[in-house]
Every structure is written in C-alpha cells, then in structure tokens.
Amino acid sequence: MKLPLRLTPGDMVWVSSKNIKSTRPTKKLSERWLGPFPILKEISMHSYHLKLPSQWKSIHPVFHIALLEPVKTSTIPNRHQEPPPTIIIEEVEWEVSQILDSKFKRRNL
C-alpha cells in the first residue's frame, strides 16, 4: 500500500498530463508529466493550488494529489532541468491552397 503523500507550500511538483489537452497529434507522443511547478497553498488534505505559467490561464490551478508527483532532486552535480514546453492553446492555422506535387511509393500516396 502506498503511503499518503504530504506536500507543503513551496515544494516543486510535476503535474500529470492525463486531463490536459496537448498540441501533439497523439496522446502517445505527449509528455506524461508537465512542470515542475511550485505549490502556493494546500487547499485540503487532497488538493493543492499551484503556480502555473501565464499561457495556461484556461487551466484551473487546483489539482488533486493523485495528479501530482514530487520533484526528486538530482544527486549529480551541475545538472539542470530543462524548462517546461510551452503549451499554445490558440495557434494560427494554415489553409493549403493547392498541392504542387505528390509521389506514389508502393501503392501509397
């Protein structure tokens, strides 16, 4: 049985991408965890208010503890975490006016 997780304000956590829409073509190619994000305050024993980036204004900042994973610090010196990917909710769509060329390869276009 897994012990209950206790987090405190200021802790850094990863957020599960389970219920968050991505711009990736398939869910299989998206990141499983997003972040890390700092905890602003504990709402209840099971939910936490996180500080999300300004691009994520359409996502509610309170998450259940089952969707959070604490950040494990690296024991390797001089190792830095890459910044989180930018999620663009409203992006420009392009319309194709015409197809200039195509090629068949083994009966596939």
Explain this structure to me?
- This protein is mainly β and 109 residues long.
- It has one domain (9-78, 85-109): SH3 type barrels, CATH 2.30.30.
- It has no helices and 5 strands.
- It has a 5-stranded antiparallel β-sheet, with no helix packed on it.
- A hairpin with a 4-residue loop joins strand 2 (33-42) and strand 3 (47-50).
- 8% of the residues are buried.
- It comes from Austropuccinia psidii MF-1.
- This is Tf2-1-like SH3-like domain-containing protein.
- Residues 10-71 form the Tf2-1-like SH3-like domain.
Poorly predicted runs are none
Distance between the termini: 52 Å
Biggest sheet, spatial arrangement of strands? 4-3-2-1-5
Number of helices: 0
Structural class from helices and strands?
mainly beta
Whole-number mean pLDDT:
83
CATH topology: SH3 type barrels
SSE order, as H and E?
EEEEE
Number of domains: 1
CATH architecture: Roll
Can you summarize the main beta sheet? 5 strands, antiparallel
Blueprint of the fold:
Elements: E1 12-16, E2 33-42, E3 47-50, E4 62-64, E5 68-70
Give a brief description.
InterPro entries: SH3_Tf2-1 (IPR056924). The protein has no helices and five strands.
Question: Which terms would index this structure?
Answer:
23% strand; Tf2-1-like SH3-like domain-containing protein; SH3_Tf2-1; SH3 type barrels; 109 residues; elongated; 5-stranded antiparallel sheet; mainly beta
